[in-house]
Design goal:
This protein has 306 residues and is of the alpha/beta class. The chain is built from eleven helices and six strands. 50% of the residues lie in helices and 11% in strands.
Length: 306
């Protein structure tokens, strides 16, 4: 296929672009999301997941320019359960806790609609990470509950998936990825930085051809480009705030000459992050999640600023 090329290609791992491709709630977007889920779960051919409904579809009215906005994808999959997908570019050192919170919210939302406990459906979180987080060499980890002595699995109601893309890229360069790895084509698509390869990827697999077509569409849309660029700036701002605050906190610890200076410095760094987020107008609950300070600590800082 010969494409009308955009002025420049946006990157699929930009969280706005990721949601545009997989989370708009359109027929084409739902088709791509189902294909991705079938490959993440390694669903056998002939037993593929059937239909999906995006419960928080992306619209251009979504406030994506807010640097603290969370552009996750929440979906109900017929005959399967509820899924939350997120593209996480910044290592805030809390993704293990964060994904548990999102999973718990999906259970809570089911009960909010009048369901009984026995009606609760499976919840799965899928985290695409642009950083390494766990010590294992595997790029795709899936965590479930089990009895710690007998290893008997708990009923399959909660799964936590982590896809550490840098690990995949490293193993792919070393030719360590199995040819039958169904996730490979998706991560190559999500992590590609070479614009000359998009057409090559499209020609190798029909479903990736559809994904590249969606990427081309969003890349050629002026408003979408502006929103994607705003998200890139937001990520840089968050990294800058965290880096500056952590440096200030560690320096404070060193100046005080405390034996626990490092620990105290990191805590002070979190307080500085919270202050900057408060000045930017961020939501209190979101600040608590990002900094791991208590709500009362954040409110106390808010009073100090006032």
């Amino acid at each position: 296929m010969v494409y009308k090329l955009p002025i420049f290609w946006l990157k699929p791992k930009n969280d706005f672009v990721f949601k545009f491709i997989f989370g708009r709630g359109t027929k084409q977007s739902n088709k791509l999301l189902l294909a991705l889920l079938n490959d993440v779960f390694n669903v056998p051919k002939g037993l593929s997941l059937g239909t999906v409904e995006i419960t928080n579809p992306l619209t251009f009215q979504t406030n994506v320019t807010d640097q603290y906005a969370i552009l996750d994808i929440r979906a109900k999959v017929a005959g399967f359960g509820h899924v939350n997908l997120e593209m996480q570019r910044v290592n805030q050192r809390n993704i293990d806790k964060r994904t548990l919170y999102y999973g718990a919210k999906l259970f809570e939302e089911q009960l909010d609609k009048g369901n009984e406990y026995r009606d609760l459906k499976k919840v799965v979180t899928i985290n695409f990470l642009d950083f390494s987080y766990f010590t294992t060499d595997m790029y795709h980890s899936c965590y479930r509950l089990m009895e710690k002595r007998t290893f008997e699995p708990y009923p399959d109601l909660l799964q936590l998936h982590f896809i550490e893309m840098p690990k995949f890229v490293k193993q792919d360069k070393e030719n360590l990825i199995h040819t039958n790895d169904r996730m490979a084509k998706w991560i190559r698509f999500l992590t590609n930085e070479d614009d000359a390869r998009w057409e090559e990827m499209a020609n190798q697999d029909p479903i990736i051809e559809n994904a590249v077509d969606m990427l081309r569409t969003v890349s050629m849309d002026r408003e979408a480009r502006m929103l994607a660029e705003a998200r890139e700036k937001a990520i840089k701002d968050i990294n800058s705030i965290r880096g500056e605050a952590m440096r200030e906190g560690k320096e404070e610890g060193r100046r005080e000459g405390r034996r626990e200076g490092k620990e105290e410095g990191i805590r002070e760094g979190k307080r500085e992050i919270a202050k900057k987020m408060l000045m930017e107008g961020a939501d209190i609950n979101f600040i608590v999640k990002i900094t791991e300070l208590t709500e009362s600590e954040v409110l106390e800082l808010k009073d100090e600023l006032n």
